[in-house]
Amino acid sequence: MSLPILATEDNWQAFDEAWNELIKTQGPIEDLVQAMEIVAAKRRLARCLPLLREHAEKLASAKRCEDAALLLGAALRGGAAVGAVADLLWRNAEAAWGTLPWWNPYIELSGFRPSANDLKRAWVCFDDMRSYAPGVVIFHRGGWGIGEVTDFTPGELELGVRFVSGRKDRFPLRTAVDIFERLADYDLRAQHLRDPAALKQRVQNEPLEILRAVLLRHSGKASQISIKNALAQVGVDGNAWSTWWRKTRMQAENSEWFRVSGSGQKVEIEILRRALDPVASLKRQLEHAPTLAVALSRARDIFGSNKLEQSVRDAGLDVLERLTVTPKTPLDDRLSTWMLLREHRNQTPEGLANMLKEALAKPVPTDPSIPSPVWALIQQIPLARDQERAVVLLQEVYGEGWIDEAAKNLHHAPPGMVKPLIDALLAAKRTEALAQQYSMLLARPMRSPFALLALIRVAEDGKITGDFATPVQRAHALIELAAQLAEGRRGNALLARAEQRLIDVMTKGQPPLLQTWLAEADLPVYRQLRATLQRGVADEIDAAITDAALSRGIDLLRAEEVPFWEEDRIWTTRAGLAKRQAELREVRDVKLPQNAEAIGKAAAFGDLSENFEWAQAIEEQRHLTEAAATIERELRIAALLENAPIADGMVSPGTLVRYRDITNAEVHDVAILGPWDNEPNAISYRAPLAAGMLGLSAGTKATIELPGGRIEVEVLAVEPAPVH
C-alpha cells in the first residue's frame, strides 16, 4: 500500500514500516514527498522527524543529494521545525546545486541559508526560482491572467512571459516569484494555454480526468462552485457546464475513486487514494442524504449506469425501501420510491401494497367528480413514467374487473396513465365507454384536460363514434379550456403542459383541427369565440381562429368594435418585421457568442469574486438574454400591416396622413407605420402624435398631448400607405 494512502488512513505503524522499507531499497521518493503534504495537514510531522533525517542521510550517502534536499524541503514547507532540518537541508542543497552558475545569485535573491530569519520562506522562494524555465505556465495574480515563460537565462535573473491576451513583458526573477503562481502540468489552465482544442476534447471524452485535475488543484476536495469556476476559466460555462456537470457528477457517484457528498448547490467531491467498496459507498450516499427525495434522485442517476453490478443495485434498493418508513416523509416521495422499487424488482413493495388495500377498503364517493380513494392515491404519483407503469397497480387491486374500473374512472387517471388506459380500453372493445367519457369531458373539459385531448385524437381518427357535440360546440369547449388553462398555468407545470398539448391538437395538422371544426361557422359564432379569446389564450390559438375566419371570407377583425390597433398585437410592415428578426439574430448569433468568449477570457484572469471583467461580462450576458427574450415575445404577437383591416379614409396604422398644425398653420405629411419601421417621413402608430390622430378622418380636428406641449391638428387627407 502506498505511503499517501497509509498517511490518509492514519495507519502510522504501517506507514513507518513502509518508509523503512523504502530507505532500505533506496527507491524513488515521489510518493513520500506527496505523503509529507498529508502528514503536515494532519499535524504529524514531529513524529516523522527521526525517519526523515535518517532517510536524508542515506540519500546523501548514495549521492542523491537533490532527492534529500527536496524531501527535507517538502517537510519544511509543511511546517517541520527549522532546527531539525536546517543544517541537513543546506548541506544537501549545496551539494546538489552549489556548483551551478545560478547558485550564488539565487542564494542572494532568496536569502536561503541556514542562518535565515525565515528559512521556510527563503527555501520556498529558492525552490520556486529553481523551477522556472521556458515553457513553464504561470498565473499573474495582478490581473494579467495566464502566460507562458518564453525565455529565461539564469545568469540574467530575468524572464520573458507571453500572456494569453497577447501581451508580452519581462520580469525580474525575484519579482516573478512574488507575483506569479506556477501552474502544474495537470492544471487545466496550463493545458488550455498549450492546446485548447485538445482540452476541449478531453472535457467531452474524459470527464473524470478533468474532474481529477480540478480536485488536485484544490488539494483533493472541492465544492460544486469551485469546480464550476475552474471550468469557466477554460471556457466551459453556460449550457456546456450544465451538460458536463450532470454527466461528470453521475460518473463520480458511480466511481469507487471519488466520494460525492452534499446536495443541491452544496455538492462536494473528494478524490480518494484508495478505491471504496461500491456497495458501502452507495449505502453511505443514500443513508446520509438529507431527504428521501435527494436519495431517490441520486439512486436514479446511479441506476442509470449499464455497468452497475446487481449487488450494488440491490443494496441501494434496500436502503431506499428502509427510507420510505421515515416519519413525516412526503407521500409523493414515497410513491416515487415505491414505483422505482417495483420497476427494478418487478414486485409491488409491501408499503405500497398495504396502502392500496387500505384505500380499496374505504367507501367510494357517490359524486362521480370525486375520485375514489384508490384513484386519489394513484393521482399523487408524481412522474408521468411512473403513472404509466401504475396501470399494473389497477390490475393488482381490482383483479379481472380492472378494465371496468378504468372505463368508469378514465377522467380520474393522472396524465401519464391516460394513453395506456385508452389503448387498453380500445383493445377490450370498450368504445362505448370511451365515447361516454368523451361526451362528458367536452361538457366539463377542466375535469381532465389530458384525457379529453387524447380522446379527441381517438375520435378524429374514427376509432370511437357517438352522438357527440357538434364541431362548433367542440371548438367552443376547447377554446374555453384554452382560456382556463391560460388563466391557471402560471406556476403550474402540469397545466402549462396541458396547454401546450391543447395548442398542438388545435393548430397543427393540415388543415388544422380548429379550421375543420369551424368550417360551417358564421360571423355570430366567431363573435362568441372572440368574447372567450378576450379573456386570454395562447397566441397560436388566437391566430388559428383568425385564419379559420379569413379562410371563409369572414373579416372578423373588421367586424369588431375595438379598432384593430388596440388589440394585443404589434403591427408592422414586412420590412419592419424583417428588421426586428435581424436584430434577434444579431443578439443570438453574434452578441451572445461574443459575450460567451468574453466571459471565458475574463475567467482566465483569476479570482472571480474580485474580477471586474468577469462581473461586467456576466452583467452584459444578462442584458443580452433579456433583450433576446423581449424580442421573441414581441415577434410572437407581430402582425403585418399588409394584412391589416384598414378602413377607407380613417387614420390608422398603415396610412399616409396630411394634417395641419392649427397653432402655426403648417401642413405636414406623415406615414403612420409600426414601431420597427424606419421608412422616410414615417412615425410609429404608438408615438404620441400618431396615437392622437388614430381613428380620425379627413376634416376632423383633435387636441394632442406631446412631450413638448399640447397642439391642435386638423386631418386634411388620409390614404393607404404603400406598405407593399
Structure in words:
Among the domains are: 3-130, no CATH class; 137-183; 642-720, Chitinase A, domain 3, CATH 3.10.50.30. 58% of the residues lie in helices and 11% in strands. Strand 2 (145-153) and strand 3 form a beta hairpin. The chain is flat and about 105 Å long.
Topology readout:
Layout: H1 3-8, H2 12-25, H3 30-41, H4 45-61, H5 65-77, H6 82-97, H7 103-110, H8 119-131, E1 137-140, E2 145-153, E3 158-163, E4 168-172, H9 173-179, E5 180-182, H10 188-194, H11 196-205, H12 207-217, E6 221-223, H13 224-232, H14 238-254, E7 258-261, E8 268-271, H15 278-287, H16 292-303, H17 310-323, H18 331-345, H19 350-361, H20 373-379, H21 384-389, H22 391-398, H23 402-409, H24 415-427, H25 431-443, H26 449-460, H27 471-488, H28 493-507, H29 513-517, H30 523-533, H31 539-551, H32 556-559, E9 570-572, H33 574-603, H34 612-636, E10 638-640, E11 655-661, E12 666-673, E13 682-684, H35 688-693, E14 701-706, E15 709-720
